[in-house]
């Protein structure tokens, strides 16, 4: 008897699960529900080449449209799953239609964190998470306009770089004392800060925002907690992402900084799996539970889920890696650097080609590389083999 695999969330991880399962001969029906109106697409270009107009929308697609039909996947886009009924082994759409599953995979990703400030609802205040978001934001990116970006993390900085290229006047506000404070050491933060300053971006670190000001329903400025008023025509909120766990939570699945899964991507309920940005998993490499927001994790964890769904034994314990493109600089990070007690820098900092290695108790934790892909690849290998110094 058929036992369909139902996938909730049509993003990076979903596309990979389907690809791996079908490549490995999985014969059960697959049903995919995605709330966005698009087939699975890549998000990284949304703050990079696609935003800058160097990449067309059709190149964002992860698979050609015919792939799903050829592989016997019943795809429903614009279809938000509103409830899981684990007792009945079914999911329910908002219209009440139920679909029964043999196995269920949650790949619901993250959403942009809300800006909880007075004025956040004004026109001209944007986030970038989806293709639709970029369309709305880009329509307002007119040369000469003043863009204030709240948040000096990857997405805020990537958008800042592209917006400079589009002729906007850009200010980045960061609450911490330096850019990329959560994910890079002061050396890398300093390099990235200088990079943006050299392109004319205004940077203010260690500042809080008290409210967004507006006139006739449209944003006109950003007020800082120290009373400074920054005029703004457009505001981008880039203050991080939160995992879409509500479906899982309401169904009674265990949640721990995301949907809690084991090393085989299984949740706390039988036949329910979770992968990608929404899932937190036990990392043997780092000795704690982690939740990653990266393409690497979405792809590799999806492959692990496909194997588990197909009845194989799997242990997902990856070396995390991530990249960011800003101007002509490629920043690559292998590993997780929190908790490091020592750094070593190698390469040509002046020339903008170098890597910073992070250690804890003599153990290599992570490597941040600036225009240094060779060191990045070596770092991934060293971390995978558990190299110590
Ligand atoms: P997603 O790709 O986000 O897909 C989840 C999907 O589930 C969404 O379409 C969502 O609408 C849908 N969904 C949610 N709830 C429901 C529901 N109830 N019913 C139906 N559908 C639902 N990573 C990198 O490694 N490098 C980068 O340079 C990089 N740049 C990025 C730039 C931007 C602007 C963004 C937004 C992300 C970037 N990332 C980058 C992160 C990367 O894109 C994500 O880690 C990856 O997309 C996660 O895949 P996923 O399948 O878990 O989630």
Structural description of this entry:
This protein has 389 residues and is an alpha/beta fold. It is built from eight helices and 26 strands. The protein has a five-stranded parallel β-sheet. Helix 1 (12-23) runs parallel beside helix 7 (295-309). The relative contact order is 0.13. The model has no long low-confidence stretch (mean pLDDT 96). The structure holds flavin-adenine dinucleotide.
Bound chemical compounds: flavin-adenine dinucleotide
CA radius of gyration:
22 Å
How big a fraction of the residues is strand?
A: 25-35%
Structural class: alpha/beta
**Tally of strands:** 26
Extract low-pLDDT stretches: none
Largest sheet: 5 strands, parallel
Shape, please?
globular
Overall residue-averaged pLDDT value: 96
* Number of helical elements: 8
Q: Helicity range of the residues?
A: 10-25%
Beginning-to-end CA distance, first to last residue: 55 Å
User: Looking across the biggest beta sheet, what order are the strands in?
Assistant: 3-2-1-7-19
Q: How would the blueprint of this fold be written?
A:
Blueprint: E1 5-8, H1 12-23, E2 30-34, H2 65-70, E3 73-77, E4 81-85, E5 90-93, E6 98-100, E7 103-106, E8 110-112, E9 125-126, H3 131-138, E10 146-150, H4 154-165, E11 169-174, H5 186-198, E12 202-205, E13 209-215, E14 218-224, E15 229-231, E16 234-237, E17 241-243, H6 246-250, E18 259-260, E19 272-274, E20 279-283, E21 288-290, H7 295-309, E22 321-326, E23 329-335, E24 342-348, E25 353-360, E26 363-370, H8 373-384
Parallel strand pairs: 1-2, 1-7, 2-3, 7-19, 9-16, 10-11, 10-16, 11-12, 18-20
Antiparallel strand pairs: 4-5, 5-6, 8-17, 13-14, 14-15, 20-21, 22-23, 23-26, 24-25, 25-26
Helix pairs in contact: 1-7
